[in-house]
Amino acid sequence: MADSSDSVSIDMEALSLGGQEHLVETTYGPVCVAVCGDPDKPALITYPDIALNYMFCFQGLLFCPEASSLLLHNFCIYHISPLGHELGAPLISVDTPLLSADDLADQIVEVLNFFGLGAVMCMGVTAGAYILTLFAMKYRQRVLGLILVSPLCQAPSWSEWLCNKVMSNLLYYYGTCGVVKELLIKRYFSKEVRGNGQLPESDIVQECRRLLCERQSTNVWRFLEAINGRGDLSEGLRKLQCRTLIFIGENSAYHSEAVHMTTKLDRRYGALVEVQGSGSLVSEEQPQAMVIPMEYFLMGYGLYRPTQSVSPRSPLSPTRISPELLSPENMGLKLKPIKTRLAL
Fold first, then answer.
1. pTM of the entire structure?
2. Mean pLDDT for each consecutive 10-residue tract of the chain (344 residues)?
3. Mapping DSSP to helix (H, G, I), strand (E, B) and coil, where does residue 155 land?
4. What is the C-alpha to C-alpha distance for residues 69 and 332, in angstroms, rounded to an integer?
5. Rounded to whole angstroms, how far apart are CA atoms 284 and 50?
């Protein structure tokens, strides 16, 4: 990758591999972190959804030229994999104690300390978005901003809890069977890409199926148990002082959850972008829809596209974001397939 502040060269093969992987020992067990980019740049950490890893959750976004140039020009990306979710992960013993969502949030602090990182930008998808939001609430001084895709913030509803419990039991006793795969595919994607009797599954869904076959089922079960036992963060969101950009697919099962979260955030710091025709995994299904909102969001921190003559090492300062940057007009209201909702 180039060091120039005016351009960035992207090695797509290296990018697809996520850069250099580190196994970080923490109080809660080892966690795999893939580092991509120049470590002298500001840090962006990512956290994927259940049963996925960084290569599937964020590869589509980083393979989008506009998004990759924006992110890799300004950040060194630290992809954190949930315990046992990295490629080739060994089976975690059933005797190993289960971790809670709080444990996973606390684990992130140890990862940051290992790499000598201070305050970081965060990007998470669904379950990963919940963990990063919890982390931001517990360690406010370590988070500069949140970019959340189809986030969770409330305790599971009865229907979600029951569905997760069924999936959890199947994972534990039968592994990643057909029913589990179907439930997860439905969780991630819209009907349009899942296919039907007339239309075949899209390539992205087929690739996801192959990935799920490679998962260690009990490792996935552990992460699912942590998320199914999560608490409600709603009351603490108002005190969250970092800027938050939320993306939600129009057809996501967690649409109401994202809208609820937006209403609980301080309106000065939060923005919601609804992506039409997408499911929950916007970063893979419609990554191009994330580019313009992210660009305006990051401009408030003094971070720009490579065409701008601004150093990627510019200090991040959340106070530099003006409310106008999060207005519907500046967030791409008139650009399909994005429609932005700030006031509900």
1. 0.86
2. 37 50 94 94 97 91 91 95 89 90 97 97 98 97 97 96 96 94 95 82 91 92 97 94 94 95 92 94 95 93 68 40 44 40 38
3. coil
4. 19
5. 15
